Amino acid sequence: xxxxxxxxxxxxxxxxxxxxxxxxxxxxxxxxxxxxxxxxxxxxxxxxxxxxxxxxxxxxxxxxxxxxxxxxxxxxxxxxxxxxxxxxxxxxxxxxxxxxxxxxxxxxxxxxxxxxxxxxxxxxxxxxx
Length: 129
Fold this sequence. Notes:
By secondary structure, the protein is an all-alpha fold. 64% of the residues lie in helices and 0% in strands. The chain has one domain (13-128). The protein is built from eight helices and no strands. It is globular, with a radius of gyration of 16 Å.
């Protein structure tokens, strides 16, 4: 697999690249200082079609599970938590579009993907609406 941005991906390409790069790196560190500003304009993929953007984000993150399953366990745990947040964001967009059943279908897998109290709280927040 090449360590570059994935072709044909309009949303989450930076996260996809960074997770794949982390998986193949022997040394990696974290810098906690602000190093850049990120501006989301009104015509961005995220703003122009939030439902599609959230669907693509979840799909992009899920596609990484197979790639990193044989690597660092901490990286997989981080990815699964990112998937959980992507599921929740997608569910909230679906709730805004009055699609509660689909929102529930999106978040229910959280309970077995990341089995902790936070996942249960997130599912209950969608149930509550």
